[in-house]
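Fold this sequence, please.
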Amino acid sequence: IKNPLLTIRNIKFVQCGSSQVPSSGLSCNFEIDWCNWFIEQSDGFEWERRKAGSMDHTTGTGYFLMVNPSVRSSLGFSARLISTLQAPADQGQCLSFWYRMDGPQIGTLNLKVKHGGEPDHVLWSRTGSHGAVWHWGFSSIPHTPAQNYQVIFEAHRDGFLGAMALDDITVTPGGCSVQKHCFFETDDCGFLGTKQHPWIRHTGTGRQGPLTDHTLGTSKGHYMIVNCSADILPLGQKATLQSPAFPSLPHTQCVMFWYYMNSSDPGSLTVYVEERGTQRQMLSISAMQGEAWHYSNFSVQVQDEWQVMFVGESAGGASSCYIAIDDLHVKEGACPKPGSCNFESGMCGWSKPHGDWYSWDWKEGVTPLQSPSPKEDHTLGTEAGHYAYVDIGELGIGRNGAALASEHLPATSGSCLQFQYHMDFKEQSSQAKLKVKLFSLQGERTVWIATGHQGRSWMSQTFFVTSLTEFQVKLEKLARCSGISITQLN
């Protein structure tokens, strides 16, 4: 085979029988080469081995894999990284890896396994921005005797602004530890419900329940739901959903989740922590304003293995009664107060409003951006500190706004809202705006605006907010070609 650029000779096929499978393994840090992984050709949208500043996870200066979903004309394409054919192991295995997904409109990263001639099976999936930081992911590879298999990392281009990266793939014998973050997108994460009154994994395309999940914000997204209408769950009876057993916690942890209860006749949702057969009630919810996903959390510290129990109970009402939960997450450290966040370990209860086009992101000070951004956060005052930001210099023409909304907060006759913000623009005459709005069933009102370049350092803002009903605080960035950062919301 010849062309002006390439010559290939002496092609040989060696040990090509289906029984001849190399036992080379899947572990790789990509510092030297691709190990036993290869890319599936996809018209230019594919994984690349890169070395870029301090982005590498292994050494901080080495190589990693990256795919750029903003490649032109690649919408709907998938970049697939595929392992060589693997011989069946003697037992189940745990595959762990480090990944990054950052950008205002990112796509989906899937981990799949393929046995023999069977279709791909999704083991793990993440969608949307997870911040410009490395995260640890893992999934058990099912034990299938006498079946060779391949592992696939698939970056699906259903977003168009941002990048995905992958590094330090490791395989160890035995199953993985329990997942501390469950989106319910690929399975039920080991949650078990009562047989008589079961919770089920559901989507918004069904006859009952939220029209969209919280993770993806679409009708195709999954969540757990129980029907609490009187004919299904009689008054006084309960439906329990129990998590797998989590290991003991030497320090305080925060359990976070999103829930949805139809406002007309919601029943009640009570959350317990069970340890050594003893149950502790952590919170109880029996009312919800408006048809929307709501955020809740509680702090816990235990000495032994423990489980979270969600107990739904009927109010004996109409057939429309249901309770749904989504996005359970267990993180180190005590939970922040409602509406508060220093962004050191994530976005807390702050998220992109449903239906919005772009999202705010989350980063370390050391991570570079297209637009100016703080080199140090305000909380720690170091490059390792984190904050929320939006880099409008990356956004498309015609869609120049991005909003960040708090969890739903209770009515207040007067509360103090305090935050630190950073608006440093190359164009000193920029008319970019940062707005703070209050949103409730009574409507939306703007309570504060900052316009244009505000300086090269963090600025502080404090003011009182009032609302007669449950409300959300919304931070809204308008105008292109500039970046805005937020930290320490209280």
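The chain has no helices and 32 strands. Confidence is low (pLDDT under 50) at residues 14-23.
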